[in-house]
Amino acid sequence: MDTFNLIELQKELERDEGRRNKPYPDSEGILTIGVGYNLEKGLPDTIIDQLFCISTNQAIEDAESLFKGYKGLSPARQRVVVNMAFNLGRTRLRKFKKMVAAVGRKDWDDAADEILDSDAARKLKTRYGRLAKMMREG
C-alpha cells in the first residue's frame, strides 16, 4: 500500500490551481490568491500575524535606509519613522524630503511640522497628529 504523499499532492494542486501573488477571480468568480486560497473566507490569525511581521520588518528596513542616523534616534522617533514607512511605503515616504532632512539635522519641530503638512496627515489626522507630537517630544 502506498503512503500519502503531501508534497506530491501539493505539486498537483499547484499545477491545477495555478499560483498567483495577486488576487484574481477563480472559475466561480470567487476572489482567490496564492494557490486556490478563497479570500472570501478571510485570513486566519496565524497568516495575519505572519504578514504583519513581514510588513513591520520591511518598514524597519525602509526607515533605516531612508533616515541616516536612524539607529541614533530615540526609540519614540524610530517608531515614528517606522510607522510612517509602514503606512506609506518606501516610495511615498521618500517624498518627505524636508522631513527626512529635518530629522537628519535633529530639528524635531521642523520634522513634526513637515509630518503635519502632508496629504497623509490631512487624511489620517489622529494618527499623524500623534506621530508629529512623538517626533517633537522624542
Number of strands: 3
- Low-pLDDT stretches are none
Could you give the order of the helices and strands?
HEEEHHHHHH
| CATH topology assignment of the largest domain | Lysozyme
Layout: helices, strands, pairs:
Blueprint: H1 6-17, E1 20-25, E2 31-34, E3 37-38, H2 45-66, H3 75-94, H4 97-105, H5 108-116, H6 119-123, H7 125-137
Antiparallel strand pairs: 1-2, 2-3
Summarize this entry quickly.
This protein is mostly helical. Helix content is 65%, strand content 9%.
What does this structure look like?
The chain has 138 residues and is mainly alpha-helical. It has two domains: 6-41, no CATH class; 45-137, Orthogonal Bundle (Lysozyme), CATH 1.10.530. It has helices spanning 6-17, 45-66, 75-94, 97-105, 108-116, 119-123, 125-137; strands at residues 20-25, 31-34, 37-38. Strands 1-2-3 form a three-stranded antiparallel sheet, with no helix packed on it. A hairpin with a 5-residue loop joins strand 1 (20-25) and strand 2 (31-34).
